[in-house]
Amino acid sequence: MFSGMLLIFSPLIIGYLIPIKQVRYLNAVNTLTMRLVMVILVLMGLSLAGLDNLGQHISTILYFAVTFFICIGAANLLALPVLDKLFPTETHGHQHKLTLSTMMSESGKLIAAVAVGLVVGLLLNHDLSWVDTASEGILLLLLLLIGIQLRNSGMTLKQIILNRSGLMIAALVVATSLPGGLLAAWWLDIPYHHGLAMASGFGWYSLAGILMGDGLGPVYGGASFILELARELMAIMIIPILIRRYPLTAIGYGGATAMDFTLPIIQSTGGIRCVPIAIVSGFILSLLVPVLMLFFLSLGTN
């Protein structure tokens, strides 16, 4: 178990130890990371195409995704408002709306990558046994690049430790998501460590879907992808509604996306004071996604 976990963690740890100061190199890492994500998502689509009884598997994927979405989302939203009651946060948003096309363009590209792989796999009808091996190799390189990105994201340890609100949000999101995952696993009658792994995506749908697909197959990978994508889309809708009265709840529901995708929405509707909180909570949750997910997946290996 631990040898397999170490093999997967190693590139992430090595990447986190690599400091990069030149902007052009960081841009190259970011570009390569996005391209590798697209490649692996296409491979995920190919894996789905190779499943027997694809129609039945799609219904299972949706059932899993909806169950986890309800259990985890309800657990988060029941607990996060407590933070707003205990630690009121002032907001100064402008309440201007961002266009839906701008907010969803990147999500659409990733969904299209999975769809392309699925369609190509169904049309070609060739042997797809090589897909899993290719995905594992690319995943190791992707984790290395993600480690580099996290190290060079601009967040220092001092900035993280001193931002109490960001730390509390991240801790509470983790503390409520995992029981939500256990509840969903009980309801679906699947191993509890699978439920804990599914609950550790925190909105990072591209990486979560890739890790779950590599660890447990395309059904879990597809369900995780849809689960975290639904979380991000829901965050887009509820952040402008909640952030005036419940800013910490709105930021927390955004999960790992609070430091990137939903950050412009948080800034425009909640004001500049919400930005450091969102960046810190999003950074911590982003860092925990591969750590927790790979750990829980490793519990099922010999």
Q: Span between N and C termini?
A: 5 Å
Quote the beta fraction.
under 5%
Low-confidence runs of at least 5 consecutive residues: none
Rg from C-alpha positions? 19 Å
Outline the biggest β-sheet: none
Shape: globular
Report on the structure:
The protein is mainly α. Helices cover 78% and strands 0% of the residues. The chain contains 13 helices and no strands. It has helices at residues 2-16, 23-49, 54-86, 100-124, 130-151, 157-162, 164-188, 192-198, 205-216, 218-242, 247-253, 263-270, 274-298. Helix 7 runs parallel beside helix 13 (274-298), helix 11 (247-253) runs parallel beside helix 13 and helix 12 (263-270) packs antiparallel against helix 13 (274-298). The protein is globular and about 60 Å long. The mean pLDDT is 83.
Keywords:
302 residues; mainly alpha; 13 helices; 0% strand
Summarize the model shown.
With 302 residues, the chain is mainly α. Helices cover 78% and strands 0% of the residues.
Question: What secondary-structure arrangement, pairings included, does this model have?
Answer:
Blueprint: H1 2-16, H2 23-49, H3 54-86, H4 100-124, H5 130-151, H6 157-162, H7 164-188, H8 192-198, H9 205-216, H10 218-242, H11 247-253, H12 263-270, H13 274-298
Helix pairs in contact: 1-5, 1-13, 2-4, 2-5, 2-9, 2-10, 3-7, 3-10, 3-11, 7-8, 7-11, 7-13, 8-13, 9-10, 9-13, 10-11, 11-13, 12-13
